[in-house]
Design a protein that fits this description.
Blueprint lengths: L15 E5 L2 H4 L12 H6 L17 H14 L4 E5 L2 H4 L9 H16 L3 E7 L5 H4 L8 H17 L5 E6 L1 H9 L11 H24 L6 E7 L3 E3 L4 H24 L4 H7 L8 H7 L5 E5 L4 E5 L8 E3 L17 H13 L4 E7 L16 H19 L3 E8 L18 E4 L4 E4 L1 H12 L3
Parallel strand pairs: 1-2, 1-11, 2-3, 3-4, 4-5, 5-7, 6-8, 7-10, 10-11
Antiparallel strand pairs: 8-9, 12-13
Helix pairs in contact: 3-5, 5-7, 7-9, 8-9, 9-12, 13-14
Bound molecules: beta-D-glucopyranose (BGC).
Beta-D-glucopyranose (BGC) binds next to loops.
Length: 451
């Protein structure tokens, strides 16, 4: 990319430059105006689950400060904002009685965005299922699909005339495997069969929700799902390590992409998971592969794997290449990976319209004596990824927008408040926001529509 270092590369017209957040990570107001308990409210109160015992009770207090946050979005010239709806604000018990206050809150948020010329991209599920449903088995209970449909119905009936971009789920791999296999996320279950069942029901609920969102929308409505995908590389040229690549790709990428785009689960993974695979009914795959309008891709890092017989599930482990640079999450900085991933999805899955729905980096930001946050490493991270994404566009990939994770520092799940991903700094004790240098830099990118 060096040859381009001094030239501005331009992105397509009407490219959606945005930033993303999720309800539990920013809203706070965890029990206000009728909101019910979610699994993350519960998980954070379970000792030892979240770093420093942090919880999202207040988070960035965006439930109360959303108007101010939208002003900041305008200040940095955002064209689009991706946020999620807290299911337990709409259905405090997960089903049954609707909480009108919850719907009204998101209506105010959407209207304020539209008045500010910012396009809302709405995620229905970013990991916070109502606790009441978890009590009945949560995503491992097939009935949850029906409750999710009711939730999609209520929300899209209210907002479908104004929200044109819908994302059913955020990262079903994380929900399935971090929530139900490693157990490091809520609800903290450690069981492979459960994790696989959850992945199937999440995908099924996605397909069902697509039809509902479509019905409640209009000709401008665009519907997709967001997957956390990674480009996978072998630790060595050995046959074993190359096999490990195929398996990890099957586990992380193809297990979700194939059913959505091809209407089938990958044969090699069905064989590998064997008797842990849940019952898949004939009509399920048809539902899951309901046509969507775009794919949301969250990309943070690549994955390097080696064969490892000690690892029971996949027989492989990931390797941290030495000499590479890492973010504060200990994720390798590998911009080329976004290019290779975008090309691969384009080639293997029907050339879909793609949005990068998340990309960004955590660094230990500090306020300097002038009150500024000089986050040069984040600027470099974003710039290098933007350039690689641009290369993919030049090669024909239909990338139509890019959302930086995150608009502001927020609750980073099991890491609590210890990791800062924001373009805007959050001073939690005072809830003061400070636009970081990366935020000012991003503003220029957006205004030039290029890097
Ligand atoms: C999630 C975000 C999270 C980010 C950084 C993604 O997996 O969608 O909620 O904060 O990565 O870890």
């Amino acid at each position: 990319m060096n040859e381009k270092a001094n030239k501005t590369v331009r992105f397509p017209e009407n490219f959606f430059w945005g930033a993303a957040t999720a309800a539990y990570q920013i809203e706070g107001a965890y029990n206000e105006n009728g909101k019910g308990e979610s699994i993350w409210d519960r998980f954070c109160r379970t000792p030892g689950k979240v770093q420093d015992g942090d919880r999202g009770d207040i988070a960035c207090d965006s439930y109360h400060r959303y108007r101010n946050d939208i002003k900041l979005m305008k200040e940095i010239s955002l064209k689009a904002y991706r946020f999620s709806i807290a299911w337990s604000r709409i259905f405090p018990q997960g089903k049954g009685q609707v909480n009108q206050d919850g719907l009204d809150f998101y209506e105010r948020l959407v209207d304020e965005l539209l008045d500010s010329g910012i396009e809302p991209f709405v995620t229905l599920y970013h990991w916070d299922i109502p606790q009441a449903l978890q009590g009945k088995g949560g995503w491992a209970n097939r009935d949850t699909i029906g409750y999710f449909k009711d939730y999609a119905e209520e929300v899209s009936r209210k907002l479908g005339d104004r929200v044109h971009f819908w994302i059913t789920h955020n990262e079903p791999w994380v929900v399935s495997f971090l929530g139900h296999h490693s157990g490091i996320h809520a609800p903290g279950i450690k069981n492979l069969s459960t994790a696989l069942k959850v992945s199937h029901y999440l995908l099924l609920s996605h397909g069902e929700a697509v039809a509902i969102l479509r019905d409640n929308g209009d000709e401008k409505t665009r519907i997709g799902i967001t997957l956390n995908l990674s480009s996978v590389y072998p630790a060595s040229e050995s046959e074993e390590d190359k096999k490990a690549v195929k398996i990890f790709d099957g586990h992380l990428n193809r297990w979700f992409l194939d059913p959505i785009y091809k209407g089938s689960y990958p044969e090699d993974m069905l064989a590998l998971y064997d008797d842990k695979v849940p019952e898949i009914r004939a009509e399920d795959l048809e539902r899951i592969s309901t046509k969507i309008d775009f794919l949301g891709v969250n990309y943070y890092t690549r994955t390097v794997v080696k064969a490892d017989k000690k690892e029971a599930l996949l027989g492989l482990s990931s390797v941290k290449p030495s000499g590479a640079e890492y973010t504060e999450m200990n994720w390798e900085i590998y911009p080329l990976g976004i290019y290779e991933l975008l090309k691969r999805v384009h080639n293997d899955y029907d050339e879909p319209v793609i949005y990068i729905t998340e990309n960004g980096a955590a660094f230990p930001d500090k306020i300097d004596k002038n009150g500024r946050i000089n986050d040069e490493p984040r600027i470099k991270y974003l710039k290098d990824h933007f350039l690689q994404a641009h290369r993919a566009i030049e090669d024909g990939v239909k990338l139509s927008g890019y959302f930086v994770w995150s608009l502001l520092d927020n609750f980073e799940w099991a890491h609590g408040y210890s990791k800062r991903f924001g373009l805007i700094y959050t001073d939690y004790p005072t809830q003061t926001r400070i636009i970081k240098d990366s935020g000012w830099w991003y503003k220029k990118v957006i205004e030039k529509n290029g890097v």
